[in-house]
Amino acid sequence: MLDRRTKLMEYQTYIDGQWVDAASGKTLQSSDPYTGEPWALIPECDKTDVDRAVEAASRAFDSGPWPQLTPTARGKVMRRIAELIEKHAQHLGEIEVRDNGKLISEMAAQTKYMPEWFYYYAGLADKIQGAVVSVDRQDHFNYILREPVGVCAFIIPWNSPLMLATWKLAPALAAGCTVVIKPSEFTSASLLEFIKLVIEPAELPPGVVNVVTGYGPVVGEPLVTHPKVAKVAFTGGSATGARVNELAAKSFKKVSLELGGKSPNIVFDDCILEDAVSGAVSGIFAATGQTCIAGSRLLLQETIHDQFVEKLIAMARTARLGDPALAETQVGPVTTPAQYQKILSYIDIAKGEGAHCALGGGPASEAEGGGKYFVKPTIFTGVDNKMRIAQEEVFGPVLSVIKFKDEADAIRIANDIAYGLGAGVWTQSVKRAHTMAKRIKAGTVWVNTYRAVSFLMPFGGYKSSGLGRENGMEAIDGYLQSKSVWINNGPGGGNPFVMKTAS
Ligand code: NDP
Fold it and tell me: Which has the closest alpha carbon to 34: 335, 327, 476, 421?
């Protein structure tokens, strides 16, 4: 059970296999979102620390023991990482509860599942294969090597730091890359604990995994622009993602972006009603709505609208707010004060736009199980898809209910948005399920389920929800590049001023 009476924890960051303070000696405070009180001190790094970390990662990539390891040996190191996560799962989960306000029940599920990413990509490490190409020349032997891209910079948001770092770290290590990770200033502790309990004892060579903690622009920008960083893998909001993409483009870095969403959760009148109601609740109130895949636009077929809303409100009313460290809690605090204010301001925007507040609609008091940064589960009905509350990401427990007539109408509304991360469809018709899956412009479509993820299934966004895919086989491609090798076993010569093409 989480002990909140401990004195202020003091963390160092991890560069080149050493625990170090920020070069400036500065620290920043991390607060427990449930109490609102500071509980940890984190190094406030800057460009000097970024340079140290990238140099260490670059040395480790070029000349350390890491590139000497066979892919099979890399896989073994990664299996050790998986076993160490299994060993420390509970502690890692509790740190994230303390630092982020995530539910202990959610963290138990996440930390139990995280090792699978390392087992899966450990298995892929020695299955990275090039090819021999029968080229259109006599006496030539041509082949393609698949090589790691180099030093990778990971920028991680506050909402699921361990899980989202895992999605990047496992394929990057399998590919043979080295990494520098910048966690969010609000939630750095769980990653530092992960390094201490998992990465260090797994005996990765120094410099293979480094962490620079601190503020977004101060640490993130020098990291993204550092000439020795080859790839940037970013998860966060779309506006920051656009900035990171722009900065990285100046030195032609490879970039993958996992960004925001405003996902439609679409309920047809031929669904199993109880399942769909539960799916709608899970889509928006799980993780206090602070998830990129939140089903924040509930599209209801007009024939079942009133009946569905009634059942939805009845279920949402039963959500237990409270201490995220308690197993029975279902909705925890908002993670940061700024996010709390943002959610409340969107509630005002929705009211101002004329949406009807059918449930919640403001802060949740202590008497209601809430506290300093709690927002009541909130449902707006009568929402038009053009309203800001339907178009913009709130990232909190606020649902917009939108009516639709038929399949064509549902598809039109679902796709009429800048985002395209996820979508839910609730129907018993196989034909409709496949039609919707094909026509919705989103990286993931869940039919009769919601918020399911796996290391086996690619994850990423269409449109403003991102670039590239994490998870599954294709994620490792993001950390590899091809090299074409031409070996001429025949005579040289020919006209030196003319390109050598097939004769
Ligand atoms: P932000 O975009 O604010 O921050 C993401 C990360 O970027 C943080 O580490 C942040 O550091 C850092 N950062 C901030 N400014 C810069 C900068 N100028 N240059 C480089 N890095 C910078 O997002 P949030 O942390 O608020 O996370 C919430 C967002 O993340 C939501 O929009 C959500 O949808 C999205 N998200 C997407 C997911 C996906 O897979 N598609 C998954 C989870 C979240 P700091 O915090 O220190 O400022």
Answer: 335
Q: Sign (positive/negative) of CA torsion 274, 276, 282, 285?
A: negative
Residue range 20-33: mean pLDDT, rounded? 97
Helix runs in 395-443, H state only? 407-415, 430-439
| From 96, 258, 393, 407, active-site residue | 258
Q: What does the alpha-carbon distance between residue 408 and residue 404 come to, in Å, rounded to a whole number?
A: 9
Structure tokens at 74: 């890399």
Strand 18-20, strand 27-31: pairing:
unpaired
Per-residue pLDDT at 371 exceeds 90: no
pLDDT digits (tens, 9 = 90+) for 287-320: 999 999 999 999 999 999 999 999 999 999 999 9
Say if ligand 1 is within 6 A of residue 466 CB.
yes
Asked whether the predicted pLDDT for residue 169 surpasses 80, the reply is yes
Burial class (CB in 10 A: 0-12, 13-18, 19+), 495: exposed
Q: What is the DSSP string of 199-257?
A: ITTTTPPTTSEEE--S-IIIIIHHHHH-TT--EEEEES-HHHHHHHHHHHHTTT-EEEE
The tokens for 337 are 């004060």
421 close to ligand 1 (CB < 6 Angstrom): yes
Give the N- to C-terminal CA distance of the chain in Å, as an integer: 75
Q: Which two tokens stand for residue 31?
A: 């607060």
Tens of pLDDT, residue by residue over 268-293, are 999 999 999 999 999 999 999 999 99
pTM of this structure:
0.96
Tell me how far the alpha carbon of residue 112 lies from the centroid of ligand 1, in angstroms: 25
Q: What is the DSSP letter of 195?
A: I
How many angstroms separate the CA atoms of 266 and 22, rounded?
48
* CA-nearest residue, atom 46 of ligand 1: 184
